[in-house]
Amino acid sequence: MQTVQQALRAAQFYTDGVDYQLLQLPRGAVMAAAGVVAEIGEPFCALLVDKDEVSLIISVEAYEHFAGRLKNAVPSDHPYRLLTVDVVLDSALVGFMAALTPALAQAGISVIPLGAYSRDHLLIPAHHIEIALATLKQLQSSC
Prior knowledge:
By secondary structure, this protein is α+β, with helices and mostly antiparallel strands. It has 5 helices and 7 strands.
């Protein structure tokens, strides 16, 4: 069974250098958002649908291209950068994100966590990405 410390020591932290836009869309826009995701063909995008809204994360460049199809989209007020925690995480691992976020919070960095099947990603305000990377590498070196 993988431990939080083992996962943290094995992790590599990196960003793809792309600015992302977080968009809020009305529930009825799920088909339009899914169509955009299907056409993007980029290595990262995310679509989340819940009972209240549709959330879409796409590159700023893609948003500029598809804005006409994403009517009533409410964009975030600043761009984000993707910080990937590149380590395969055991699905039974408990507390991994809880080990990362206090250090980022202490550095004054807001985080939007995203979990893929075996890896975690963090959306970080673009202007804080370098501080976030340094903070996580310092946390890693202390374990």
